Amino acid sequence: MKRILTGLQPTGNITLGNYIGAIRQMKELQDKYDSYMFVADMHAITIPQDKDALSKNTRSLIAIYLACGIDPDKNTIYIQSENPYHANLSWILECNTYFGELSRMTQFKDKSSKHANFTTGLFTYPVLMAADILLYDADLIPVGIDQKQHLEITRDLAIRFNKKYGDTFKVPEPFISTTGTKIMDLVNPTIKMSKSSDNPKGIIYLLDDIKSARKKIMGATTDSEMIIKYDVENKPGISNLINIYSALTNKSISEVEDEFKGKNYGEFKKCVADEVEKLLTNVQEKYKEYIESDIIDVILDKGMEKTIKEAEKKYKEVKEKVGFKR
Ligand code: ATP
Ligand code: MG
Q1: How far is the CA of 218 from the centre of ligand 2 (A)?
Q2: CB 269 within 8 A of CB 49
């Protein structure tokens, strides 16, 4: 059985973008693949985090996974920082990564430009991500398009290491679905919807109050053309809403265009808001149960034990190959 792996950072409240780009995919794939899903808390601290918020968000993210339908019997669920081998492997990989290749990463350029003082961790982020993936011989990585560049580095590092030290790592493939690969901010549809962004008006959070989520959809930036057509360049707002609707209903872009031919933006937005409401109501109901439940710790302990064992084995192999032995 092929293995898929993905992680989200506990950097804030989970957005509709995270759901559509990552969690939804994992849910669809969990029946066919051996699935690994983790909380990337070590990645989160590449940007300053309040320590109490970080641990609260970590637990909340697990409850979100479960509420979204990630099945603990079909997935290995764990927290990155509970396994020391991620950081250990990352160091060895860093020593095989070029400064130049990390300098080209758009996420680094984006995020570093928002902070007067940014850390080297933000710069080496993609290498830790490579370690997360390569430790477990993952085949497929479901990510939003914003992470595609990082996945390419992961592949390059795996190939480079295998060439230098002999076959060690599986070279993973990105798994990017055809819809919803990049959900945009509702107010400014030329930037990505991000949970760490500071303008909540443009973001649907899965735990948003339903009324305010509907309001955000109804108030989404559009254009003056009044044609419901997918055209990212000229109609970024409408295209984003089409993407959201298409992902939530499993309809193709052209099916959505046909469905709303001749309709006005208000009618279309109402239908998008209905779909968002359905999703949020369902997730929030389940979230309430999980967040209070001890099941979270049972799942995490099991995930921790299993992944430490597996990662240790891989790390030992790597260590010996680079000459860390007496
Ligand atoms: P941050 O602002 O802290 O970087 P984020 O919203 O970008 O948060 P991440 O934890 O970095 O979320 O990413 C988790 C997963 O969600 C990744 O697989 C990423 O590709 C996906 N993702 C994030 N934002 C979007 C989006 N707007 N559309 C589709 N997928 C997304
Ligand atoms: Mg991100």
Answers
A1: 25
A2: no
